[in-house]
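Hi L.,

You mentioned the student needs an example of a multi-chain input paired with its predicted structure. This one should do, with 1260 residues in total across all chains.
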Amino acid sequence: MSATSSAPVFAGVVPPVATPLLDDGSIDHVSLARLVDRLVSEGVSGLFALGSTGETAYFTDDQRVELLRTIVSVNADRVPVIAGAIELTAPRIIETARRLIDAGAQAIVTTAPLYTLNSATEVADHFRTIAAAIDAPLWAYDVPVRVHSKLGIDLLVQLGTEGVIHGVKDSSGDDVSFRRLIAANDAAGRPLQLLTGHEVVVDAMALAGADGVVPGLANVEAVGYVRLWEAAKTGDWVTARTEQERINRLFDIVFQPKGLSGDATGVGAFKAAMHARGIIDHATMANTVQALDADAVSRIRAILDELHLLPVAVG
Amino acid sequence: MSATSSAPVFAGVVPPVATPLLDDGSIDHVSLARLVDRLVSEGVSGLFALGSTGETAYFTDDQRVELLRTIVSVNADRVPVIAGAIELTAPRIIETARRLIDAGAQAIVTTAPLYTLNSATEVADHFRTIAAAIDAPLWAYDVPVRVHSKLGIDLLVQLGTEGVIHGVKDSSGDDVSFRRLIAANDAAGRPLQLLTGHEVVVDAMALAGADGVVPGLANVEAVGYVRLWEAAKTGDWVTARTEQERINRLFDIVFQPKGLSGDATGVGAFKAAMHARGIIDHATMANTVQALDADAVSRIRAILDELHLLPVAVG
Amino acid sequence: MSATSSAPVFAGVVPPVATPLLDDGSIDHVSLARLVDRLVSEGVSGLFALGSTGETAYFTDDQRVELLRTIVSVNADRVPVIAGAIELTAPRIIETARRLIDAGAQAIVTTAPLYTLNSATEVADHFRTIAAAIDAPLWAYDVPVRVHSKLGIDLLVQLGTEGVIHGVKDSSGDDVSFRRLIAANDAAGRPLQLLTGHEVVVDAMALAGADGVVPGLANVEAVGYVRLWEAAKTGDWVTARTEQERINRLFDIVFQPKGLSGDATGVGAFKAAMHARGIIDHATMANTVQALDADAVSRIRAILDELHLLPVAVG
Amino acid sequence: MSATSSAPVFAGVVPPVATPLLDDGSIDHVSLARLVDRLVSEGVSGLFALGSTGETAYFTDDQRVELLRTIVSVNADRVPVIAGAIELTAPRIIETARRLIDAGAQAIVTTAPLYTLNSATEVADHFRTIAAAIDAPLWAYDVPVRVHSKLGIDLLVQLGTEGVIHGVKDSSGDDVSFRRLIAANDAAGRPLQLLTGHEVVVDAMALAGADGVVPGLANVEAVGYVRLWEAAKTGDWVTARTEQERINRLFDIVFQPKGLSGDATGVGAFKAAMHARGIIDHATMANTVQALDADAVSRIRAILDELHLLPVAVG
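Structure written out for the whole complex:
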């Protein structure tokens, strides 16, 4: 699908939706519906389904479709939905993406190939092959900590100019490169929407020219990001920064688990906090990912309490 | 499936079968049949289907099944067949592995999770989950250049002792670690078969105690590896080394392509040489992988010619 | 030396001084004097002598002392001078640092050990050992691309709280970590001054709370950074961003050399531009570092010309 | 110095000499003399002074000279001595190397530049610059875990052919690359001596064509390596392997410390074992490197005991 005016716009606050699970590891559709409804009600401008925060790599395509159907259904066209098609290479990504588009995804986001050893030329052809085979706008996801290669600025702007990709989610942790991508995109007539995945520097990245943010932490509280983004849009940088600093104290929850894996720690902290706030019914992690211990959960609750984010007991 | 005396043995020369393709990128079953028959005829002791040399990451599961069926059919039970189930995580690997077992794979080999960020504990559970869900012996594939993490010695020996895995294909390029794995496996009563993936040091790794080798280069010529391995088994290390050194001159084909990706270079050189030798009808690479240029192919032919490995013209 | 109110303050724009060389590779003191005088005249608030931009690793301690003496002499106490003592480990750093302090350095900055394989505990002791042995405030320099390890937030704040280090130059390229360091430093009562080494995101890092910047590009033009920083200090973020964007166009000079090393490219572009602007008499690089080709120099001149930064011919 | 027939030959077992320290961290010349005499008496064919096992990075040049003088004096020309000049770049390495040559080093070994960001062309010029400035044969030391870059095969053979370097100590842990270096060196007429730094695969590397080994573990026991090498030279690979396997059980001492840095662990285990065997009087580590705990020392003693390597009490 080529870039047209009818393509859905992903800008502002576009949280990656977490995946609530029942104790047996199956999908908790009730909690997922509650989460999605809450995110949209808090004012987010789009939903990023089946991303890393959604533990998407741990689910089969049948489960991914099941998850996406609930997200799309509860959202009820209030905001646009983009879905991650995380797979090894173009032929496999196309299979997954087509199923997600059938299930209601309005755009697809994917990474460079996994497992393979490719050149930049081959990575460009990878995105071209996918874009040509699916009937939805394609976005590029730059997450070197997982993919182990970085998408270059020239590559991204070239693919944008060709209409192959419509935007980039940047989780590269490289602010110099992201700033240069913004400038190169501007110089090319802004073919790309540019979202940062780093939830603790949104004010700074907004000042630098980002179009939006994909904050995993918004699963715990989205309204702060909405306020931050509104302030930034109006040039009220002091308010934006103040909100960011409050949010960053909340982000300290991800540093409470000790000795666990990256996936157990980050998503685990989000789920523990969501559970403490009553947003989801269980903090169960995807299969094989270790659970937080009680001490970590307790420290996470203390941070929520300090920020007045624990639910008030009714009675 | 627990380790039992009925599990197929993979030892000696177990080449990873390359995937011949027609010019349009579809599977060239005629060339594949010729290749498999040649490998078995040259005396290999097993076949490793759907590995990295087989470009397996670039194929859908339907294509993988199609490939495996031809390999299994042509092999006709002459040697055991192990198949790679390369996917992101346990639930997805299990789906792929079951289809491959149905298609005739006698064992399954897979890696640590891809894309995710896991601890050693989680990686161990990953292998346990897969082994418990499939009806064939499981092997571990250690290839950090693609998976971006290394399987630890303690982890592997523990999983072997539990009967979770039956063997390891080591493509880590870390000879110190491999030597220590051999010693640790010996100390544990040899629960694991240990194969090296490094085709240029087979004599040395045989001396060190490896049980076999998975040489991609055997797609070009397998008989040299068979001779090398026979010599090593009888303690004739001078002959083993001499054969290795001849093979290593052949391996120089992979250094002839310039400026291409890792996948284009290595498998590309194998395919160019196989094509020059008449083993496959086309040197076509998997979709998005770049082709070698004529100069590289010419240099590869020159090496084959020097080693008397080009076919004699009939007339 | 413990942190006291008499310690020199390094904040705002603190450029790393480049090292002009004669054609034979010896130090060009005339150009160096011109450069230092220009930097101070343009309004910088401190000088960072003998850093990476100054090619310090390529010089002997005798040469380093010689360089520093000219910098200190020309500066004539107008702004404070901090000097890099880049060496392998504490005992060697102390030797170098003492010579630099004797030559006029008012503070010393150094990295974690080089070449060795140390734990965080050992790195902390490394800084403690150095601080105890020298008679000047110590700063930590975090530059993982050169040191191949990252200084942790807890480590830095702990060393700040102990009075071991007075500040950090962060060239880690990790904006998430830098933002968290700012917050942790605030929470600890601000024992550290925090400077970013990334010249293209100064507006954003100022918004985030950085105390200053160490911009290599200021060797080419410092006045833009001074304007940027003044605007940021007064909360005029739009002006700060506009100036940053103009500066970032200038930074494109570092992407003009092709196929050279990191050191040849970055410092080489700075020196070529400084030479084109008449700030230094030769663009000679340190011994063994390759020179730019004429095409790269020409492209660099074109960028300077576009930004009206070339000198007007007199006549 | 160009390669001539008068250059000292380093082949066979060339241990890197550890640095015994008194409790106050100063050099323990008595223990050092005992160690050197023991190594030479056990039959080693050369001494590698001031390498990583010697903790050379932690010492000033004055200390390095002091250490080397004792080694040279005790050795008394029985075997050739090569010394590491580990510093940042050519100008600094030359200063150190000249002092070491004056103190009796018969050859110098160094790495690619540290801290800097160089191309292969620049690294080649680095070695050329050093070789031209010193009056002793130069060797290259390839240790990516410390230098964070790998010396390429083409580079090394080119420098060998030019007479710039006389040999290579390979601690790259990349057996495929080392095997290819051996072949490339053979094809070029063997300008280089090739030593492996990996003490647990000496039998295999000898079979592959290595000229010798630099085993840190020989500080604990050298005679096993001497026996191993003698067996390999006579083609008795079964004896070589048997000796290697005994040695590798001894090498398990380096896996007994838990949670310490790389330097604390490896050299720490060697020193603890040397101390237990009575070879050195104190197990003191270089400044800032953490000491082993009593449990680790106890486990190390148990391994020595099992292998009958503890001294017999006299009474």
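You could point out the following to them. The interface with chain B takes residues 173-176, 179-180, 183, 198, 200-201, 203-205, 207-208, 235, 237-238, 241, 245, 248-249 of chain D (CB under 8 Å). The mean pLDDT of chain D is 96.

Best wishes,
N.
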